[in-house]
């Protein structure tokens, strides 16, 4: 089959290329062999003879979205049910999470703990439908930290049976565990330098891991040319992480001016996951069963964090104006936001002061830069053809991207996974 015969052309739509340029009215996008072959005004782009033509007139064509912070594997929130579920059940239920994530427009995701190399490769080889994954395998925690599954009954609850232990104490244990994860195929390393919302034995604002432990993780990852992403919510954990020259700060809600200075100077990425807490609070209002399944006083933590978040908004907006590097991430998990990932863009506009175009860029080409995949994130010749077609104009109303019935095409590397255009 010739290149022309296997080509696809998406014609007539408004094209947003993901790079921040002006939209192309009545544009044409040509895809050959899974990559963008041509893009521009319809009058100037030749559609190959024999190409499959998809009519996007009246709609908007964008790059597939990149979620830089997900947990894409399943475990029951109800602890009783979790203890009754077989590990293989959890693996198979995970395939539904992965497919929902893809169907809502996320074509690439960075899994922050839960997926091992088997999930990544099953997707790559087409056995499972989902976004292409970059994996950390586990999120590394100190004893009693955010990633430690110990409960007061006196044992650790195995959350995902296919994963190695996530607990390390001291420089030597950190070095061993990081090396083990890299050996097992981790694309990057994830560590927790503060407590979190869902963990039983800590508070979200307490610091975790010493500077030496954090620097050891960074050095061991760097030896394999890999990066370290850090979960940190409270200011002390954030400061400790930034001093160790981490690559990306996840959550980081309570950064201060000095943190912003350091992140801009060192080029550290910020993945703020803004929707998580307000969406949790809203879910709790309407779903008492979901709320009652908590183990870690999540309601109290969410309320305290939300109140303080409102006070941080002016600082966040100023950080964005000053040029802090922001990439979109949601913290989607079995707990919340599955298939609703793109609501994050609304919070980036409202709470970070981004334009709709700025939020889209943070979820496409800038996110691709964050995950170091220059072949993704834009409708540009030579890049992989990850494409969304949506009904409406997200530059006028960013919320159209979260409405599933408006998503008419989801394409990954030229292959349609959702197509309402025919």
Please tell me about this protein's structure.
The protein is of the alpha/beta class and 422 residues long. It folds into 2 domains: 8-64 and 379-419, Urease, subunit C, domain 1, CATH 2.30.40.10; 65-370, TIM Barrel. Helices cover 33% and strands 21% of the residues. Strands 1, 2, 3, 4, 5, 17, 18 and 19 form an 8-stranded mixed beta sheet that branches. Strands 9-12-13-14-15-16 form a 6-stranded parallel beta sheet. A 3-stranded parallel beta sheet has the order 6-7-8. The radius of gyration is 21 Å and the shape is globular. The model is unreliable at 1-5 (pLDDT under 50).
Question: What count of helical segments does DSSP give?
Answer: 13
Strand content: 15-25%
- The coarse silhouette is globular
Q: In the CATH classification, which architecture of the largest domain applies?
A: Alpha-Beta Barrel
CATH class category of the largest domain: Alpha Beta
CATH topology name of the largest domain, in short, is TIM Barrel
Measure the end-to-end span. Answer: 23 Å
Q: Count all strands and give the number.
A: 19
Low-pLDDT sequence parts? 1-5
| Total number of distinct structural domains | 2
Kindly report the name of the CATH homologous superfamily of the largest domain: Metal-dependent hydrolases
Mean pLDDT: 96
Binned, the helix content reads 25-40%
């Amino acid at each position: 089959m010739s290149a022309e015969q296997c080509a696809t052309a998406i014609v007539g739509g408004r094209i947003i290329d993901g790079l921040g340029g002006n939209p192309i009215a009545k544009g044409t996008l040509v895809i050959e062999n899974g990559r963008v072959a041509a893009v521009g005004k319809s009058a100037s782009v030749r559609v190959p003879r024999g190409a499959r033509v998809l009519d996007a007139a009246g709609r908007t064509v964008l790059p597939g979205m990149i979620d830089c912070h997900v947990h894409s594997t399943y475990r029951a929130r109800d602890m009783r049910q979790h203890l009754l579920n077989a590990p293989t059940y959890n693996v198979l239920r995970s395939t539904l999470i992965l497919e929902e994530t893809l169907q809502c427009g996320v074509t690439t995701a960075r899994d922050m703990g839960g997926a091992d190399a088997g999930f990544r490769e099953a997707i790559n080889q087409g056995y499972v439908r989902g976004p292409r994954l970059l994996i950390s395998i586990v999120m590394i925690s100190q004893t009693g930290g955010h990633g430690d599954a110990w409960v007061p009954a006196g044992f650790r609850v195995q959350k995902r049976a296919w994963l190695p232990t996530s607990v390390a104490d001291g420089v030597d244990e950190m070095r061993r565990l990081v090396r083990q994860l890299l050996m097992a195929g981790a694309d990057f390393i994830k560590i927790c330098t503060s407590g979190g919302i869902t963990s039983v034995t800590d508070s979200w604002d307490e610091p975790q891991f010493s500077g030496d432990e954090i620097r050891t993780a960074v050095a061991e990852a760097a030896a394999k040319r890999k990066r370290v992403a850090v979960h940190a919510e409270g200011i002390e954990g954030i400061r400790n992480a930034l001093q160790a020259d981490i690559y990306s700060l996840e959550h980081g809600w309570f950064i201060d001016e000095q943190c912003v200075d350091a992140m801009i100077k060192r080029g550290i990425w910020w993945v703020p996951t803004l929707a998580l807490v307000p969406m949790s609070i809203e879910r709790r209002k309407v779903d008492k069963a979901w709320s009652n399944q908590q183990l870690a006083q999540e309601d109290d933590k969410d309320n305290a964090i939300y109140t303080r978040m409102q006070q941080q908004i002016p600082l966040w907006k100023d950080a964005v104006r000053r040029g802090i590097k922001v990439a979109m991430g949601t913290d989607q998990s079995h707990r919340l936001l599955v298939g609703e990932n793109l609501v994050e863009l609304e919070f980036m506009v409202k709470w970070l002061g981004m334009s709709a175009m700025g939020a889209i860029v943070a979820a496409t080409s800038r996110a691709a830069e964050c995950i170091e995949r220059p072949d993704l994130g834009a409708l540009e010749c030579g890049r992989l053809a990850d494409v969304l077609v949506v009904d409406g104009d997200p530059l006028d109303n960013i919320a159209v991207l979260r409405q599933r019935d408006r998503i008419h095409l989801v394409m990954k590397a030229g292959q349609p996974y959702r197509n309402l255009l025919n």
